[in-house]
Amino acid sequence: MADNKTLALIGCGLMGGSFALAAQQAHQVHHTIGYSVPHASAHHFYELGVIQSIAASAAEAVAQADIVLIAVPVAAMPSVFAAIAPALPDHALIMDVGSTKRSIIQAAQHHLGARFSQFIAAHPIAGKEKAGHSEPFAHLYQNKNVILCPESQSNPAYLKQAHSLWQAIGATPIILDADQHDRGLAAVSHLPHLLAFAYMDALLQQPDATDLLALGGPGFRDFSRIAGCDPTIWRDILPDNQDQILPLLHAVRQAIDTIENAMTQRDTTQLEAILQRASQARINWK
Amino acid sequence: MADNKTLALIGCGLMGGSFALAAQQAHQVHHTIGYSVPHASAHHFYELGVIQSIAASAAEAVAQADIVLIAVPVAAMPSVFAAIAPALPDHALIMDVGSTKRSIIQAAQHHLGARFSQFIAAHPIAGKEKAGHSEPFAHLYQNKNVILCPESQSNPAYLKQAHSLWQAIGATPIILDADQHDRGLAAVSHLPHLLAFAYMDALLQQPDATDLLALGGPGFRDFSRIAGCDPTIWRDILPDNQDQILPLLHAVRQAIDTIENAMTQRDTTQLEAILQRASQARINWK
Q1: Which has the closest alpha carbon to A19: A158, A144, A150?
Q2: Phi, psi dihedral angles at B216 (to 5 degrees)
Q3: Which of A15, A32, A234, B178 is the right S-S partner for A51, CB 3.0 to 4.6 Å?
Q4: Residue A223's Cα: distance from chain center in Å?
């Protein structure tokens, strides 16, 4: 039986809490011990019943764990690895849920030593755009992709366990190497967030911003939705993955220039050709 | 009774057809006569029952009309005004549904002569992103805003009639001058479309575009949705409103530069401050 397992949850937010709830409901986990900075988040999760006990430190949380899930902001990952490394049991599966993978894997390799073979980097493609404290819910990962990025040193048994665990809570595991992950997410997530933030900020700089925003309709709503995301999360992700984001941002600048040029030259033939290929690609998507 | 009125519909697409259906269901219109290039669209609307007769020309369509709705692409508006001007009855309300207003008003003023006082420029903020032939439906304008842009020469009786008509089909009229309309729509519609098209095109230029697009999740879906819009419509709108779009595009480029700079300098304090104000503005929106 899988459900006698103990989960150590480091970081008590939407992503980690939803995993803990889902793993419990899927009988993959019997007991969850949580640790969080700020501590109030762990107490809140205890009151919600998401975790069954509160640890005094990250090291204490993992000491008896069969599964460790690190669900803290990207920039906080290295210090968590350093804190838990001395206390990790020799059989525990260790995972994170961070939005970038190369830097987290590097930090894990640096701090976990021999335990690095037990680490499987994971990124579930799910979340909410609202900043602040969203309550966790067990079906957050239902029918969502989760990208797993094993390294050559990863023990295949842990990869298999991670795969089964995410499947058991309704997610679809996809295995990618960390470079592919970071480039792919730069393209379909980090870059759109950067552009949506920049777009909103440009509107805010206008003296008549309030009048302009009042006219927003469904197109505005969808296009700008991700600009409502948590700034503290994106403050970490963008610098962390900048080497993958920058070449794509350069390509967007070039595409904007090309469209602007066709627009100001009133070269409607070329303009239509560009818009046509972009439109068709979007219509063909999924 | 209002429902003995005849509507002349010039242009048989989603916007015009949905207006005709809605006006008929709201007993604002008794009979709709349609004209369209291509003619097949008018025949299709006749078969659907959206229009009750087909005119051989735009001038023939308007000759007996009480209400004229011009629902053709922005670039085709001047030739329609020229074609209908000699045939317009002296009591007909004339409206368009174009996405830009200054150039259409100019063309109307140029071609309609004394009938210009009967013209009320209108822009219902509704539509669909899919290119090609979307079937019209009567509730397209339900709970949507419609911007009306009267000029100083507009006869107030026609403005009042236009106002009542859009209200009768469930829309909320907003009165703006044409400059405000064109700047506002540049900000919340034209610019996001340009950016979404450019973003999709930049991804398509990548050698691994297929792999990248396969990773798109909910953020990608919403952000890029409007890139699936009809390229023939946007080929017209962008050049037509370029003087309003360009200063805003410049502001977006500056915001991108500022974010890039904070990102590459790893100035997370400044980066968070920018993302924070953009995020808060988006959360506060409506």
Answers
A1: A144
A2: -60, 135
A3: A32
A4: 20
Distance from CA of B136 to the nearest CA of A (A): 18
Contact A192 B226 (CB under 8 A): no
* Residue A133, amino acid: H
Kindly give, in sequence order, each residue whose CB lies less than 8 Å from that of residue B152, ignoring residues fewer than 6 positions away. Answer: none
Q: How far away is chain A from the Cα of B76, in angstroms, using its nearest Cα?
A: 13
| Fold entry, domain B181-284 | 6-phosphogluconate dehydrogenase C-terminal fold (1.10.3660)
Using CB atoms within 10 A of its CB, is residue A273 exposed (0-12), middle (13-18) or buried (19+)? middle
Rounded distance between C-alpha atoms, residue B168 and residue A106, angstroms = 63
Residues of A within 8 A of B210 (CB-CB) are none
All residues of chain A having their beta carbon less than 8 Å from the beta carbon of residue B263 are 194, 238-239, 242, 245
pLDDT in single tens digits along all 286 residues of chain B: 456 899 999 999 999 999 999 999 999 999 999 999 999 999 999 999 999 999 999 999 999 999 999 999 999 999 999 999 999 999 999 999 999 999 999 999 999 999 999 999 999 998 766 555 579 999 999 999 999 999 999 999 999 999 999 999 999 999 999 999 999 999 999 999 999 999 999 999 999 999 999 999 889 999 999 999 999 999 999 999 999 999 999 999 999 999 999 999 999 999 999 999 999 999 999 8
Q: Where are the domains of chain A?
A: 6-176, 181-284
Mutation pick from B129, B145, B254, B256 vs chain A, by most beta carbons of A within 10 Å, is B256
Q: Measure B54 CA to nearest chain A CA, in Å.
A: 30
Determine the angle formed by the axes of helices B242-264 and B191-204, rounding to 10 degrees: 60
CB distance A191–B199 less than 8 Å?
yes
What would the CATH number be for the domain defined by B6-176?
A: 3.40.50.720
Interface of A with B in 6-45 (CB under 8 A): none
Distance, in Å, from the CA atom of B143 to the CA atom of B229, rounded to the nearest integer, reads 22
Residue B76 to residues A34, B70, B104, B156: CA-CA distances in angstroms? 64, 10, 10, 27
For chain B, the straight-line distance linking the first and the last C-alpha, in angstroms and rounded, comes to 38
Taking the CA of residue A74 and the nearest CA in chain B, the distance in Å comes to 13
Quickly tell me which residue has 């006219």 as its tokens: A215
Model-level ipTM above the cut of 0.90: yes
Of B208, B183, B198, B101, which is closest to residue B150 (Cα–Cα)?
A: B101
Tokens describing residue A100: 């970038």
